[in-house]
Amino acid sequence: MAQGEGRGTIKKTVVIHPIMDGYIRKTWSILIEQEHEATYSMALNYMLLIAIMETADERGLSARTIETIQDFVNDRKAIDRLNLQEHLGQLREHFGLG
Questions:
Q1: Which of 14, 27, 78, 84 has the greatest CB tally within 10 Å of its CB?
Q2: What is the C-alpha to C-alpha distance for residues 40 and 23, in angstroms, rounded to an integer?
Q3: What is the domain count for the chain?
Q4: pLDDT tens digits, residue range 78-97?
């Protein structure tokens, strides 16, 4: 990230697929083992930065990565569960139940 680009943070509530949560937690653990002052959010941002940088690479994504992404976006059951949890969270927040 170029200096000065990170002018603040944005706090969001997101729904994470359980498989992704496992990878985020493993990344978090590795960062802590490497003596970084890591949090769950830092680990997630770390993984997102890796994804952004890999996507920006002029060679593009590997065939395996493209296949995995396509499998995920075409998994209606998983997407519907994530969307439902996001909507329920928004309702809880709106009505002060969360």
A1: 27
A2: 11
A3: 2
A4: 999 999 999 998 899 899 88
Q: Which domain holds residue 51?
A: 15-60
Whether the model pTM is above 0.85: no
| 94 is a domain residue | yes
pLDDT in tens, 16-30: 999 999 999 999 999
Distance CA 13, CA 89 (A): 8
DSSP string, the chain: --TT-------------HHHHHHHHHHHHHHHHTT----HHHHHHHHHHHHHHHHHSTT---HHHHHHHHHHHT-HHHHHHHHHHHHHHHHHHHTT--
Distance CA 90, CA 92 (A): 5
Tokens 């802590």 belong to which residue? 32
Token look-up 């990565």 returns 65
